[in-house]
Design a protein that fits this description.
Radius of gyration: 15 Å
Helix content: 55-70%
Number of strands: 0
Largest sheet: none
Order of helices and strands: HHH
Strand content: under 5%
Distance between the termini: 25 Å
């Protein structure tokens, strides 16, 4: 998110919105979510980012917790 914002200000090569959303969906939800907040505010006004990124963050959290409980570990000992 920061690199794309930087490139946008310089009129440089940009990362497509689809790529940013796919990265959020495959586990980068937290980084994408933080990139939408201060100081970058990147893509924060786009409705699809405001809907898909928090959803990906929730789904990633659910998957991590499910995997942790499936293998019999407390999710708090993973980190």
């Amino acid at each position: 998110m920061a690199f794309d914002k930087y490139q946008g200000k310089r009129n440089g090569w940009r990362i497509s919105e689809l790529t940013l959303l796919l990265l959020a969906l495959i586990g980068g939800g937290m980084g994408t979510f933080l990139g939408m907040k201060a100081p970058f505010y990147h893509k924060a006004s786009r409705m699809r980012f405001r809907m898909i990124v928090p959803l990906s963050l929730v789904l990633t959290t659910i998957i991590v917790l499910w995997v942790a409980f499936y293998f019999g570990e407390s999710p708090f000992t993973l980190f």
